[in-house]
Inverse folding.
């Protein structure tokens, strides 16, 4: 029980509220006394998104490099309405994730979803990692994909990225196999929605 008469269960169930920024409603997450917002990216977010991408290049397990992801990648994702953001209470971007419809190469793995989307380019600023932001972002993106009618979500993760692998497995993703893509070894993961 807290001093306000709320149990820890009811506090955890009250993690969202609505706020207005630029005339659009965005859900806010309260986490460790800090506010985070989940929203779709806009073209004006591109410079900050690119800085986040570059901050992650060379970090353990990251398969990105100086030329990828780039401005064209980010703007294509934004134009498709497929690049999601987590921003802090000052609207600074601390996490990103993209979702693509259709196929991203099945590589002969035993996928089970018939109408999947693909999660890609999920990243959180190094200094913000370990705070649950990636988990929350993954959950929000998964919920958005489910609302859009996809029956599952697939992704590729580098075999040498234990932190990301742990994140996906803790969030209901199942390993479907391994494939060599872009000259690197990846695990294919999939999450199906409950029927």
């Amino acid at each position: 029980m807290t001093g306000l008469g709320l149990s820890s269960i009811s506090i955890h169930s009250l993690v969202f509220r609505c706020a207005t920024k630029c005339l659009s409603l965005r859900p806010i997450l309260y986490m460790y006394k800090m506010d985070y917002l989940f929203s779709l990216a806009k073209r004006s977010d591109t410079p900050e998104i690119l800085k986040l991408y570059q901050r992650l290049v060379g970090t353990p397990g990251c398969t990105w490099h100086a030329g990828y992801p780039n401005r064209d990648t980010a703007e294509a994702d934004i134009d498709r309405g497929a690049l999601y953001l987590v921003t802090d209470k000052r609207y600074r971007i601390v996490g990103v994730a993209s979702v693509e419809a259709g196929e991203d190469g099945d590589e002969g793995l035993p996928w089970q979803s018939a109408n999947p989307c693909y999660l890609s380019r999920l990243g959180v600023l190094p200094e913000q990692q370990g705070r649950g932001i990636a988990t929350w972002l993954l959950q929000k993106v998964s919920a958005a994909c489910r609302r859009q009618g996809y029956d599952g979500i697939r992704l590729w993760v580098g075999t040498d990225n234990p932190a990301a692998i742990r994140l996906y497995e803790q969030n209901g993703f199942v390993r479907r196999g391994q494939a060599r893509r872009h000259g690197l070894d990846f695990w294919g993961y999939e999450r199906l929605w409950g029927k």
